[in-house]
């Protein structure tokens, strides 16, 4: 719910981190760790201010509720997928990511991969729902990252309806 530019990564191995970025050059000699030893930027703006201001204005509970709501929506989509015989959940849903695909008992993996790619492209071109693609165990799957605070259950109903409709229509073209 905040700009990507203020994100951070927690790193377990301090020495591996330093080895990745620190550089001993004639013009940057120093006896202690500098900010430039920790990343590719030699300096950066006060990005943490954006996070701090949002936390001060809305509070931690606000963001907690938003994240919990996204997880609930992902669980809703998971139930829709599990309850539709033409769809298959491709990975467990732990947080806000749901990975699934249209399935057809008469199709091989190569055809299902092509079908999935075409379904995703058609959905994105149409402009009503915007899933992405990922690969799980060599299989192309539809990846939905639930992060939009305006998403409603009806949006996920529409997504499932469109995936099934497109899958039914495209499978005839690909197998024919």
Structure write-up:
Helix 3 packs parallel to helix 5 and helix 4 (109-126) packs across helix 5 (153-175). A four-stranded antiparallel sheet has the order 1-2-4-3. 47% of the residues lie in helices and 12% in strands. It is built from five helices and four strands; from the N terminus they run H-H-H-E-E-H-E-E-H. The mean pLDDT is 89.
From the structure above, extract its key features.
176 residues; four-stranded antiparallel sheet; 5 helices
* Strand arrangement across the biggest beta sheet: 1-2-4-3
Low-confidence stretches: none
Portion of residues within helices: 40-55%
Structural class: alpha+beta
* Coarse morphology: elongated
Task: Work out the strand percent.
Answer: 5-15%
Biggest beta-sheet profile: 4 strands, antiparallel
Rounded Rg? 22 Å
Helical segment tally? 5
Task: Report the order of strands and helices.
Answer: HHHEEHEEH
The average pLDDT score comes to 89
Total beta strand runs? 4
In short:
Helix content is 47%, strand content 12%. The chain has a four-stranded antiparallel beta sheet with strand order 1-2-4-3.
Helices and strands in order, then pairings?
Layout: H1 14-21, H2 48-58, H3 60-82, E1 87-89, E2 97-102, H4 109-126, E3 132-136, E4 139-145, H5 153-175
Antiparallel strand pairs: 1-2, 2-4, 3-4
Helix pairs in contact: 3-5, 4-5
């Amino acid at each position: 719910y905040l700009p990507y530019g203020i994100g951070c990564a927690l790193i377990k191995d301090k020495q591996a981190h330093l080895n990745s970025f620190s550089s001993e050059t004639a013009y940057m000699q120093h006896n202690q760790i500098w900010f430039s030893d920790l990343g590719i930027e030699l300096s950066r703006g006060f990005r943490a201010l954006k996070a701090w201001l949002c936390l001060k204005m809305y509070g931690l509970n606000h963001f907690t509720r938003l994240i919990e709501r996204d997880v609930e929506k992902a669980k809703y989509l998971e139930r829709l997928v599990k309850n539709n015989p033409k769809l298959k959940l491709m990975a467990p849903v732990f947080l806000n990511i749901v990975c699934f695909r249209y399935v057809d008992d008469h199709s091989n993996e190569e055809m299902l991969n092509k079908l999935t790619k075409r379904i995703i492209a058609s959905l994105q071109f149409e402009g009503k729902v915007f899933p992405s693609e990922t690969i799980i165990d060599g299989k192309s799957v539809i990846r939905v990252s639930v992060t939009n605070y305006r998403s409603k259950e009806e949006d996920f109903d529409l997504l499932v309806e469109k995936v099934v409709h497109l899958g039914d229509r495209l499978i005839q073209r690909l197998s024919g």
